Structure formats: C-alpha cells, structure tokens
Amino acid sequence: MERRSALVWICLLGAGLALVLHPASSVTTSKALPRPPRLLGCVFLNQANVTCRWEAGDTSATHYTLQIQKRSGAVALTRNVTLKTFTCTTIDTSCTADLGKSSVRFIFCITITAHGRSSNISSDPRCQPGRIEIMLPPAILNSVKPVDETPQCLHVIWSRTLSVFPVSDREIKNGTLNSQIEVTAEGQLDIQVTNVTVRDYSFPVCLLRPGTSYTVRLRHSYRGPESPWSPWSNARQGRTAEDAPSAAPAFWRQVKQTDSKGWRLTSLLWKALPPFLANGRLLFYNVTCQTESAQILNDQGSCRDLHQTRTSCTFLLPAECCSCALTASNSAGTSPRAQIWLLGASETEPPSPRQLTARPLDDNSVNVSWTAPAKRSVSGFILEWFAVRDENSSVLHWERLNSSQTTFVITEGVKPMERYAVSVKALYSERWVGKNRTLHMYTRQAAPSAGPVVEVQQIYGGRVELSWSPVPVELLRGFIRNYTLYYTAANQPARSVLVPGNVYRYTLENLSPGNCDIFMQANTDAGTGAAGPIANVHIGSEEISKIMYVILSLMVTGTLVLALMVCLAQNKIKRKLCQFVPDPSNSSLAQWIPKTTSESMKQPSDAERTQIENSEVILSGETEPLNFDPSQTTKNFMICNQTYSSLLDPSGFHLPQSVPLSEKLFSRGPFRKTFTTDLSPCPPLYSNVVFSHTHNPAAPILSPSPPQSRDGRHVSIGDVKLPLGGDGAASPQHQSSTIFSGSMSPSSASQSHPADVTSSKHLRPQSHCTSGLSLRPDTFTHPNSPADNVSSLLPLVLVDFSYCSVVCDNHSSPAVNP
Questions:
Q1: Nearest by Cα to 96 from 52, 58, 56, 144
Q2: Mean of pLDDT over the chain
Q3: Does this model's pTM top 0.85?
C-alpha cells in the first residue's frame, strides 16, 4: 500500500509539473513565430493601376510581393472565385501593380508576402471595392463667370470624361463627391483653398472680393477620407462683378509756393485704392475745393479730368482756410469722400510730435519712430520722406497712419548713399494738421565722389583768401564732417589744413612768392572723398609791397579824418566862445573928436579927386553898379556870424589907451589885431575889406565913410581900388588889388598899400542877415593927422566876411565918401 500511494503521489506531481511546463512551452513556441507585413492603404486609378503601401513585419525580408486578386461582385467573396491576379515585387514597402483596363467597380483582395532567407510569411488578405480608395481623374474646368447682382461670387462650370470617371450623375447629385476649389486673386501670391458642395456640373463660389480677377481650379474625392483627392483641374480665370469702392483713397497735400497775395500753389496727393477696397477697375478721380464759407473754387488747375492712373494734381488755393475733397469712381459707383483742410495764413499750427528717430535696418529699409505730442489727443500721423537733391526734384513718399502707430518701417523709395529727409506730422481731428518734425539720414554712407571747387578771392602780401561752394548733395554720399585743404608751394612739401564742415572761406597766410597749388577733399563718416580741382595761385614779390601801400593809405586817410575832426572841434569852440562882437559905430570911440581941427587937414588935390573919381569899381557877380543910399550910411553895421581877421597896422600903430573899444576889438600884439565870432547861420558870402596905410604910420585913422564922387554920385563897393599916397598922387605900383579869403598874414598886409575891397555876392534871393556899415568922417581920427590926407585916414584893416552874406542893395549897401 505504501508503495502504491507513493506511486500515486509521483504521478500527481508529474501531472502537475506537466500542466505547469506545457503553457511555458507553448508561449515559447508562439514568440518564435515571425510577424507578417501590415497593409496600410492603396490608391486605385480607374483602368490604370493600383499602388499599395505596407509596414514590414518582424522577419528580415529580402523582398516583398504585392498580390491583388480581382473578384466579380460581393457574391464572389463567399464563393472565393478568382478572376484575375495582378502582382508586383519590390525590396521597398510600396509597389504599383498594373490593372490593365480593369474598372475599379470590382472587388479586389490584397495580400503582401515577405520573403526571408529561410521562410516566407504573408499578411491576411483584405478584400474591398476599388472605388473606396480610388483617386478620381482631374475634372475639366470649362468657365468661371461673374454672378449678376452678386459681386462677391463666381459661377464655375466643369465637366468629366465618363470613361475614366467612375462616378455616375446620380451619385454626383446625391452628394457622393467631396470638392474643393483653389482661388488666387490677381496680383497676389496668397492661395485660398475652399471646400464647396458640388451636386451638379455648375456651382457658385462666393465670399470673394467684388471687381477682382481670380484664377480658379477644382478637385474631387470619392466618399470617405480613405479616398485621396484628385489632381487639380485646369485653371480658369474669372472676374467678379464690380461694386462701388468701399473706402476713400488716402489723401494728402503739399504746399509748394505762395505768391505775394497769399495764394498757395498746392499739390494734392493720393494713393490708388488697393483692389480689395476699389471693388473693381477705377475709371477716374474727382477733386473739388472750397473755402470755409462753402464757396466753390473753379480754378482747378491740373485737377480736371483725372484719369485712373493719376495720383496727384496741383490746385491754386487762397490764403484763407479752405478744404479739398477727393472721390474715386468705377462702373458700379463712387467711393466715400476723402477730405483735407489747409489752415489760413494767420492760423497757428498745433505742436509737432517729439523725439523723432530713424534707424537703418539695411540698405533699403529704415525704422522710423516718434512720440506723440504731450497733452494733446491726435487722430493720426502723416509720415513723409523724400530724397534730398540739388539738381532736380524728387518724389515725395508719404504714409497716413492711425493714432496708435508711432513707428513705421520705410521700404519704398530708399537706396544707400543717398540723403533722405524724414518728417512726421500729427493730425488733430479732421481739420488740424500740426507742425512737422524733420531729420536727415542715410541708410549707408560712403566717401564723397567729388571734392569742392576752390576759388581764389584775393591775393595780398603772402595771404591768399579762398572760398568754395558745397559739394552737390547727390555727390556727397554722407554727412560732411570737415574738409582737408591742401596747398603745395614751389620746392616745398605739401601742407594741409583741417577746416570745419560748416565753413566755406579760409585764408592761407605766410605764403612765399611763387606758384602754389591748392585743392580740397571732403570727409564723411565713411572716409575721405575724391580731390577737387587744383587751383594754381601765383604770388609775386610785388604782392608783398602792396600791403604797405594799403597801410600807408589807411594812415593818410586816418590823419585827414583826424584833422577834419580837429577843425570841426575848433569851429565848435569858436561858436561857444565868440558868439557876440560889438558894433564899433555904437562905441564911445565913434564920438571921439581929435584936438586938431578939421581945417588943418590937407585937402586932396584935384588930381587926387580925379583919381578917386575915376577909380575902378568891380562888382562880383553883377553887371551893373549898385546904387547906394547915403541916408543909410549912418546905420550901424550888424555883424552876423562873421569873422574879422587881421586888423593890422604895419607901422605898429596903437589906438589910444583911452579908447575903450580897443579892448574889445583888438587882440594883443603889435601887428595882428583880430576878433572872431561865429556867423554860421548866415549863407556863405565871401567879403574881404582891406584898408592900407602907407606913409604916415603915426596917424592911421579908420574913416569908413561912403565913397562919393565930386558930382555927388555914390560908388558901390564891389572891388574898390583906391590909389592913395602920402602926397595925394596916384602911384602905379599901388594899383594892384589883392583878394583875401580867411585871415591875412602881417607880411602880406604890410606890403599892400591900396585899400582893396573885394566882395563876392552869394546868389540867393534873401539873406539871413543884412550887413550895414556906418563909417563916419570923424571916426578914428588922430589929432596930428591932416584933414586932406586920405591915406592918413585909412589904416590897414582886413575884414573877413567868409561866413556871412552881405546883401548889397539900394538900401543897405555901404558907401565910402571921398
């Protein structure tokens, strides 16, 4: 029994071990089997071929075989009836098998076999209709036309080739096809692909822009997502119907010049509407301007009949505040109106933006930024830029930006090595435009391509004065920082001077005689530019002496000016010190009676009387002798701004000390006795009266009595020549007449024996003063003088009337009695 029970336990243990070990052996066997390839999908082309793709299995396959079996309908699936097999072999994971003329309407079973070195393994067959994964042939696009009264749509018409397109008309109407349309607007690179529902051979495509030309293509897919899209159809172009422009053009202005009356020649600028706003082909623009009082301005200048290609015109606007409006029109209508305002000449512009900066990004783009004005709300900004040129004008580029934009990247009309002026203005509401803020910039600088032309202005001594004009801005190619001035003298090394960029004149000094070559170069941040033309200067040795002549001329001129100033100062002093000269006829001396009686005086002889009677009387400026009234001889002589000089007595005669007038009339000294007063208010009349004493120095008596002939006729004083002698005889050597202007020296006065009276009458209708001289016979008589000696009665007297006019007429002319 024990042996039997032990055997039972052994059997049970063996059975348990067998149960335990058998699943392990089966798992080990299953892991050893390779995994076959897995089919991913196929693409069928009707009556053409089929291309399938798969995923490799675990077996290291050397090549694969694609096997496709065509079956006839769904019944064939159960009967397993094989009609035809199509195969292809490849080392890759995809292969294309030729189906010949087989239609995709049949059921196809697909199997993939992986061939290894030791064994082959095949995937399970997958059977399905060929149309499930068919790629339809491309559709035929016949036309693309606009839709009337629907400018956002196009009408597309297409067709198919029935023999190769395995979808019936009934299936199309039932919505078997999935369709897409590709639309590309004219002039744009963006391509729009839109899903459309196609249930017929024509359908509309909407959500397009009016008046826009489009290029259209079409494609289909069959049923679900397993069917790939067909190739795109042929392309057709179509244009949507036009609509009125949906926005106004961007509008701006630029005042070019203003005339004397304030009229402003204004250039009106606008930008062509983009296609998505134009809604069609623009035909023309229309501009109208009016004053603030709604008065239409008819003189439109070049703003008439604006063609669609125009983007500017000029209009003459008055000085008062006015506005201009712009509209764009196409065949469907007119756009909204764009309006700008021009402030009046007396109105003040609002402030400009702040902190304008321009930073070049590359040779053809600039990043411009600014800050909005403080404490003012703006409605937008105007950014302007143009190339700065000297020879011809450039195109103004501009952009109108909204109030939130304070930066802009300029990419239009910008080139390297060309200077640009960039400015920005703030817009305040619809009417007000602020002041502009401007800066100049380059995207890239270079050395100037030309140098300044030096011109010699003056050469004097060893100095050469030079000037030059700025280099044309087109040739600068950068900002000028300074100039280098080179000059080379004969047999000397070249020298240079650095001149600031804002200076256009310079003087070279201490140059030696000889030839000197001078030229200049302009310097920018990028380097030194080309040299300008050479100016050859010759400095002669005579140039060194010219400066001495100039200095001497200046010294002589200064001396003359100084002398003139001294004369003027003396004249002014005379006016201050000698403003009044007493009249001798009213003095006590006029009433002085000498002790010797008049009977003791010697009377003139007949010959002397005849000589006096026949004396020459010359009137300066007159052709006839003036008549004098003897009754006027007692009038006092009024001195008006007159200078008396050289009351000389050549014999050294002195008036008696008892005569008080001598202290007033005569200055100190034995020979020269003068008195002076300023008579400047009177017109200039030059008169010189000289009474000469000859033989009797002890008895010089002034006897200014009116001259009178024997028959009682008066003798006028023009040029009076009196031959006076000690014995009453006329001496020939004493017949000469001497004319004085100013003062007379004692020597000349002592040699003049006759009494010369010279008068030059000033040709004026009236005089500011009338000079009358009362000369009485008993005036200045000496006790020891004979009464008949005329020469003893006339001492030497010189009276200078160079600053006072003496008007001689019948009532005021002085006369001398014989």
A1: 52
A2: 74
A3: no
Closest CA to 350 of 431, 428, 402, 292: 428
Q: Which are the contacts of 366, defined by CB distance < 8 A and separation ≥ 6?
A: 358, 359, 360, 409, 410, 414, 420, 422, 441, 443
Q: Return the structure tokens found at 63.
A: 């090549």
For 301-323, the pLDDT digits (tens) are: 789 889 999 999 999 998 889 99
Contact assessment for residue 708 and residue 720, using Cβ atoms and an 8 Å cutoff: no
Which pLDDT value is given to residue 374? Answer: 86
Instruction: Give the neighbor-by-neighbor strand order of the sheet with 719-722.
Output: 617-618, 719-722, 755-760, 686-691, 797-800
- Of 419, 271, 286, 432, whose CA–CA distance to 351 is shortest? 432
Q: Are 795 and 636 in contact (CB under 8 A)?
A: no
Strand segments (E) across 512-668 = 514-524, 527-531, 535-539, 617-618, 643-644
User: What is the DSSP code (8-state) at residue 154?
Assistant: E
For residue 476, the SS3 value is: helix
pLDDT bucket at 806, cuts 50 / 70 / 90 = very low
Nearest to 809 by CA among 614, 625, 683: 625
Q: Which domains are present in the chain?
A: 38-133 (2.60.40.10), 140-239 (2.60.40.10), 251-342 (2.60.40.10), 354-441 (2.60.40.10), 454-540 (2.60.40.10), 578-818 (no CATH)
Produce one character per residue of 198-225: b if its CB has 16 or more CB atoms within 10 Å, e if not: beeeebebeebbbbbbbebbbbbbbbee
Eight-state DSSP code of residue 492: S
Give the pLDDT band (50/70/90) at residue 393. confident
Kindly give the pairing relationship between strand 454-460 and strand 354-362: unpaired
